[in-house]
Amino acid sequence: MIQQFIGVDWHFTGSTYILFALSTIVFFYGGRPFLKGLVDETKAKNPGMMFLIGFAITVAYVYSVAIVFGLQDMDFFWELSTLILIMLLGHWIEMKSIAGASKELELLVQLMRYIAPLSIFHNL
Questions:
Q1: In this structure, is residue 118 part of a structural domain?
Q2: How far is 73 from 67, CA to CA, in rounded Å?
């Protein structure tokens, strides 16, 4: 779709296989946290967001592989890669904010040592 928008066509003989190879790397390496979450949440019989993302990328990958090896339709390798990228970015931001909040709570606990003795004088 982007190629159509900017008016280019970068298809050549074998380009589908190169896209397949690169997408396989992205799927298994970049999608690892979501695939692991898919398995863990399935075992726990408690589907959540990791299950949803893992299932979505698996369906997109399997369908696109079927396209490469004979099914006639449009593949979703670009959408798969974009979804994994956006979800990894969101996951990283979430983990960073949780780590930051945890650090701030630790600092508050450390401050309690200094504040707790002062509360004795407050009751007088």
A1: no
A2: 6
